[in-house]
Amino acid sequence: MQERYVDKNTHALISDLQKLIRQPSVSAKNLGLEECASLVVKIMKKSGIKAEILRLGKDIPPAIYGEVISKKNPNKTILFYNHYDVQPEEPIELWTDPPFSGKIKGNKIYGRGSADDKGELVTRIKAVESFLKTTGDVPCNVKFLVEGEEEIGSMHVESYLKKYQKKLSCDGVIWEFGYVDEKDRPIISLGMKGLLYVELSIRESIRDAHSSLAVLIENPAWRLVEALKTLRDKSGKILIKDWYKEVDKFTSQELGVISHEPFDIKSFKKEYGITRFLGNKKGIEIQKAIVGDPTCNIAGFSSGWEGPGAKTVLPSKAMVKIDFRLVPKMDPIKQLARLKKHLKTKGFEDIHVHMIHGEAASRTQIFDPFVKVVKEAADESFGTSIMSISSAGTGPMHSFAKVLKAPCISIGSTFVYARIHSPNEFARIDLLKKTTKCMCKIIKKFST
């Protein structure tokens, strides 16, 4: 019944997604957030979902709460977590069409947020609508939390969870997105890595100087390069003392799941234009690294002249941004202390360390009953699905597990090469429809 409704109303799904794409909502620029939040509320109400704006403070982006209370089964609740903010559209010149156009070409809808995360949000709203329009009820209580800061670190989501804990109470959380692989199999992810994002900086002199003075004045960029070389080896292993101290090895059950996770090496290398993997990883080591290896990544380096042509300058300062991906039991604050101690021990006490963001990792256990519900729904909707111990990315899943004490699982409609965070981001219409139907099945199965 619900599936037929989804098929007959695909045009409405597409139209609502286009409306959301055409409303810019870039959290990094504080652009259009209020307007987009209001639009989400309007779309939810049109679908029959009771919706309202939640607030923490005047300068904090609003969140949206939506709910439908089941008449038949009000004792069980599923929560959909999503976000309405998007990444900046730059570089604009690399977009084929305007980044907020919502342009349709064949089976694809293009635009910033089409996949991450407005497309995912629409599939959940339309799943609930399909029940309300066909039966006048939902199989269990359904709640929504849609925030506006996910793309800049979800700094206030835990505060929202704590302030509105009673309102948001639930028995299971469907995470904000999920990948679909090259063979159209949804990847069910049971966790997310954590994150420690830091900025290392050093100033050597009071102003930039002529580069001929490099024989007398130390170049701060070289100083940072020397420090960076002490953080990890060529294979990616982090060399900071006790960095892996709390990390548990995979259980035999987890290794079994990991060994069955498909990874198309040829497609991956072609997509990114690479010929080999870091550390020459092969076989199961590739999958193990994706879901369970901490990382030390240079996200940006700035010093001296960065414009076109030559400028013989000796910079006065240098700065590098580093993101460390963390796995369960790694505390961002404890890891930060270890980083600072490492730099001091290695003789780099003059380098200033500034923490920008920290997020602990989270992982739902394989044997949780919620996993079976999602797996069965995905297999029925897509033919087959792939189980993954953890996503390689980061989100505030740990906050949800800690505050709401509910299992969290990622599943969604985002094609693995949908160019999220890049120019020409798109969502596939066929996957949006399939995922909407999958959400219907998850709601129905979860209610029993």
Protein topology:
Elements: H1 2-8, H2 10-22, H3 33-46, E1 50-54, E2 63-68, E3 77-83, E4 104-105, E5 108-110, H4 118-135, E6 141-147, H5 157-163, H6 165-168, E7 172-174, E8 179-180, E9 187-189, E10 191-203, E11 209-210, H7 220-228, H8 252-259, H9 265-272, H10 284-292, E12 295-303, E13 313-314, E14 317-326, H11 332-345, E15 352-359, E16 362-363, H12 369-382, E17 386-388, E18 391-394, H13 397-404, E19 408-409, E20 414-415, E21 426-428, H14 429-446
Parallel strand pairs: 3-6, 3-7, 7-19, 8-20, 9-17, 10-18
Antiparallel strand pairs: 1-2, 2-6, 4-5, 5-21, 10-14, 10-15, 10-16, 11-13, 12-14
Helix pairs in contact: 1-4, 1-14, 2-4, 4-14, 5-13, 12-14
Can you give me a brief rundown of this structure?
By secondary structure, this protein is an alpha/beta fold. The protein contains 14 helices and 21 strands.
Give an account of the 3D structure.
It contains 14 helices and 21 strands. By secondary structure, the protein is of the alpha/beta class. The protein has two domains: 2-190 and 364-446, Zn peptidases (Aminopeptidase, 3-Layer(aba) Sandwich), CATH 3.40.630.10; 193-247 and 294-359, Alpha-Beta Plaits, CATH 3.30.70. A hairpin with a 2-residue loop joins strand 4 and strand 5. Helix 1 (2-8) crosses helix 4. The longest helix has 18 residues, at 118-135. The model has no long low-confidence stretch (mean pLDDT 96).
